[in-house]
Amino acid sequence: MKGKRKGTITSKWLKTNALLSHSEIRQxxxxxxxxxxxxxxxxxxxxxxxxxxxxxGTYGNGVIRAEVLKQGVNKxxxxxxxxxxxxxxxxxxxxxxxxxxxxRSYLVQMGIHLxxxxxxxxxxRVMVQLNPKVVWETTGIIGRVAHPGKIVTNYHSGGQLxxxxxxxxxxxxxxxxxxxxGKMSRLGVTIAKQLRQKYPDYRQVGVDVGLDxxxxxxxxxxxxxxxxxxxxxxxxxxxxxxxMRYRRLKGPIRILKKKK
Length: 260
Ligand SMILES: Nc1ncnc2c1ncn2[C@@H]1O[C@H](COP(=O)(O)OP(=O)(O)O)[C@@H](O)[C@H]1O
Ligand SMILES: [Mg+2]
Prior knowledge:
By secondary structure, the chain is an alpha+beta fold. The protein has helices spanning 12-20, 37-47, 90-101, 164-169, 174-198, 237-248, and strands at residues 4-5, 8-9, 32-34, 49-54, 64-68, 76-80, 83-87, 106-110, 116-117, 120-130, 136-145, 160-162, 204-211, 217-223. Strands 3-8-4-5-6-7 form a 6-stranded antiparallel sheet, with helices on both faces. Strands 9, 10, 11, 12, 13 and 14 form a 6-stranded antiparallel sheet that branches. The protein has a two-stranded antiparallel sheet with strand order 1-2. The mean pLDDT is 94. The structure holds adenosine-5'-diphosphate and magnesium ion (MG). It holds the Pfam family ATPgrasp_YheCD.
């Protein structure tokens, strides 16, 4: 089936569109378009920094960060893995990008200036699962800190898994941390419910949330086959145990509609 891989929705485009139709979630989704020369140039003019990523990608593979430079002769730059390239004009920049993306389908998304921890960018993975009462519950939240030279935070791209309170502690007071964590946790549940309207056949989602300096949570990506093992890294072992326990739950996949 198009966009699906054994109960997994692989297309970031289809997932984004499923979320955009929800009026509350909408505001947390960075502007996303299909990659074309026109779309990239207009998004760079508007946002100055964007992420370009495969429509169906994982582990941060193939993800590119592109930006307009304010100083020097070279005006455009992109980075993939550890490699940065700069260009004088838009055409040579785009032609070079095309060689990287080849014929594959790519998206361009407004870039979030992610918070940093020890000069490294980080984002947050929010795990949301159906609990034994068949109600969506946020079961785990963990921070992912990018490898120093990289633009992605994925564990499989050299990222590091760190307790979220530790990452937020240099930015926020204890009460503020609680409030931001609570907000991400509720947003995760809202997303899971919304996605399920369109795709009823799964019982867990892992949301990649990016925080900017204003602490606004941005939805970078929603995974329908999230890795549970990342939570093994937390000192609090009860989180991992719960994630695994809920993962093993079977039962009715479609929630029975409550009678009015
Ligand atoms: N719009 C964006 N702004 C800032 N960082 C981003 C953006 N999109 C992706 N990233 C970074 O790249 C990583 C991988 O991108 P993601 O969309 O989650 O694809 P993948 O399926 O490969 O994990 C994210 O976890 C984040 O660190
Ligand atoms: Mg991701």
